[in-house]
Amino acid sequence: MKLISIEDYNPNYMQLARPIYDKQKRVLLGAGRTIHPVYLKRIMELDIRYLFVEDATSFGITMEELVDFPTWMDAIDTVNKFYHAVSKNEELPIRELQKQVILLVEEVSKRKAIVLIPASSLAMELREYAHSVNVTLLALQIAKKLNLSQMQVKDLALGCLLHDIGKVLAKGVEDHSRVGFEYLRKIREVSLLSAHVCYQHHEAIDGSGAPRGLEGKEIHEFAQVCAIANLYENSISKDGLQPHEAMEYIMTKSGTLFSTDLINVFIQQVPSYIPGTQVKLNNGRRGIVTKIIGNVQRPYIRFLDTEEEISLAENHTLLITEVLNEKKST
């Protein structure tokens, strides 16, 4: 299995490895099928940008690092319900949201690394909620290295799930952090710490952020974690960057937007090359990433010419020099 841009889909040798959903979470096309050109056009019209597929090259790659699909969809549905209730001034499904926090914490804790399902693999109407879930998953992965208590982890997760809630209430996007904070701080079941994750997730350590222009340690660590995850997820889902490109972009913000210490933790916890990525090495050979064990930046590679599998962590002189798209790899 591997993740590809929908433009790279080829019905001659690829089949779907994950279902495609519409805005009502109905299955448009199930796993194990090829996509007829007519359906492919309709899917593109939904602005779905990514597909999980399987072909001969990626056969046998299980992507165990990938978040559990039903858990991911259930969390998206719950965030959707919460946003809807806020917009309609209805009773909030806070208990249901807290339950999803526990499930997401468990989901991340049992994996060495987390591979995201891009929000842009769903119909446009679901992406805002998928974005919040993905930001939460990334934040929880970073949190593994921060020696947090269980309560702190849950507060971080809840704050990340609701970091954009102000967009439902604010007249302008620029003010959504403050508006979201003012709303969340009045909910008894939401801690002040979770509310501050929402309040400060657009602040920057150099003082260039919003809404208050906080600097350095004036910004809570949890808000910085959310901010890093937010920028990374947007880079992949909205801007279409590949994971290694998004990682490099995040690294350029070290010491300006984000603390160097947290960026270093992020690099240790989030892989640049996910399973299914086809790569070229510094010895000129081509391979495909098969799994992540140990060092997340030094995955296992299967050579395309011999199918021999090696660990980059055990072969220190081998380096990935290029990520190959479908056209370069065929």
Strand segment count: 10
The whole-number mean of residue pLDDT values reads 94
Number of helices: 12
Q: What's the overall geometry?
A: globular
The CATH architecture of the largest domain would be Orthogonal Bundle
Salient structural properties:
5-stranded antiparallel beta sheet, 330 residues, 3-stranded antiparallel beta sheet, 12 helices, Hypothetical protein af1432, Molybdopterin biosynthesis moea protein, domain 2
Q: How would you sum up this structure, described in words?
A:
By secondary structure, the chain is α+β, with helices and mostly antiparallel strands. The protein has three domains: 2-54, Alpha-Beta Complex (Molybdopterin biosynthesis moea protein, domain 2), CATH 3.90.105; 69-269, Hypothetical protein af1432 (Orthogonal Bundle), CATH 1.10.3210.10; 278-329. Helices cover 42% and strands 11% of the residues. It is built from twelve helices and ten strands. It has a five-stranded antiparallel sheet with strand order 9-8-7-6-10, with no helix packed on it. The protein has a three-stranded antiparallel sheet with strand order 1-5-2, with no helix packed on it. The mean pLDDT is 94.
Summary?
By secondary structure, the chain is α+β, with helices and mostly antiparallel strands.
What is the fold's blueprint, element by element?
Elements: E1 2-5, E2 15-16, E3 20-21, E4 27-29, H1 37-45, E5 50-54, H2 69-88, H3 94-109, H4 124-143, H5 150-161, H6 166-169, H7 176-184, H8 192-200, H9 221-237, H10 243-251, H11 260-269, E6 278-281, E7 286-291, E8 300-303, E9 309-311, E10 320-323, H12 326-329
Antiparallel strand pairs: 1-5, 2-5, 3-4, 6-7, 6-10, 7-8, 8-9
